[in-house]
Amino acid sequence: MEQTSTTAPAAAPGGMSAKTRRGALIAAIFLMATSAIGPGFITQTATFTTKLGSAFAFAILASILIDFVVQLNIWRIVTLTKMRASDIANAAIPGTGYVLAILVIVGGLFFNIGNIGGGGLGLNALLGLDPKLGGSISALIAIGIFLSHRAGVAIDRVIVVAGIMMILLTVYVAIVSQPPVGDALFQTFLPSTIDFATITTIVGGTVGGYITYSGAHRLLDKGTVGIENLGAVNRAAVTGIAVTGVMRYVLFLAILGVVASGAVIDVTGKGANPAAQAFQAAAGDVGMRIFGAIFWAAAITSVIGAAYTSVSFVTVFKKDMTERARNIATVIFIAVSLFFYIIITTPPAQMLVFVGGLNGLILPIGLSIFIYAGWARSDLMGGYRYPRWLLILGALTCALTWYMGYKSIGPIFALLTAA
User: 3-state secondary structure string, 85-117?
Assistant: First the structure.
């Protein structure tokens, strides 16, 4: 009788059913992917593709490679230690977890202001609503999801459905815009221009800040942790990176086709919405509606992801925080983001580019702590021998992100005051 639960055929490693573990992994993959392909990344891609043309493909490649190293290390260490990122940081270097938590929460707040703005821009393109009203509606929908008694299930379903819709619609526009694929592939590896501020901003918009930890923390909340789940977690991380990588490149190609055709895209005006202009130029009014749907889906999933992940760092200050209390804190986080979105006068598109750069500056701090933990604190992982090749790649990536941050800090903050 007592052995029944351990011999059940549906059991997966760690006592979790295969279906439950698969659901947890899919949720983590799509949370990471939709956080990475949010309205900030879409706006940044349109802005920088207009500025750099095919040469921007190199920045996309750099973001994918950095994402690969960062996510594999973060997901692996969180899985093995069974702790949140801030707790890992405190255990590895006392006090750094609090610093990391504050940085991620503040960066997530800025990002969420931009995400709500993205929801406003999406509903403006889709339904013609005023962006402030559209942003408010988007924030209230996200709040409703977290107030639901089945918030966890609702989050997972919304993110998966919205993610699939984003991919299909973007592929359609990429085909219609007929981009110069050959030149894009060539400049992916041999770019005519390398702009560190651009790379740092796009990396921050798709890897940095809260995004780094979103998928890993979702796995932790779902209980998909421990060495017994490591193989499945690694495969999920690679799958998530592949999904986001393809989505990034397809989005870039969709906008590149418009830029290469000679269409003029405004990236500096007060009401500029570069991605919307690109989609409209590619497919007319239908393209504008498609953009609205993609942008709104990206925004609502990113509002959820940014709020969920940012609040998961609050637990470092209050260890006994219940799931219900976290959901309420998440609602407050979204409400505060909405308040600042309404009163801030910086155009949403400009804010979306800036917050990517800000999170790109946060990235090397957290990554440095994790790489140190991998090198020196195997005791936190039950004595697990961490792969040296992954640590070496992590150390090199860490050094690169520090250098990019140093080279880019001035241009990134200048985005706030740009015309």
Answer: HHHHHHHHCCCHHHHHHHHHHHHHHHHHHHHHH
- Residue type (1 letter), 16: M
φ/ψ of residue 17, rounded to 5: -65, 150
Q: Are 179 and 256 in contact (CB under 8 A)?
A: yes
What DSSP line would sit under 274-285, residue for residue?
HHHHHHHHHHHH
**Is the confidence at residue 395, as pLDDT, over 60?**
yes
Residue owning tokens 């085909």: 175
Structure tokens at 397: 């990536």
pTM of the model: 0.80
Query: What Å distances lie between residue 136 and 15, 123, 212, 294, 298, CA to CA?
Result: 42, 10, 26, 18, 15
Q: What's the mean per-residue pLDDT of the chain?
A: 83
Q: Are 363 and 208 in contact (CB under 8 A)?
A: yes
Highest mean pLDDT among 96-100, 194-198, 241-245, 381-385: 96-100
- Asked if 408 and 196 touch (Cβ cutoff 8 Å), the reply is yes
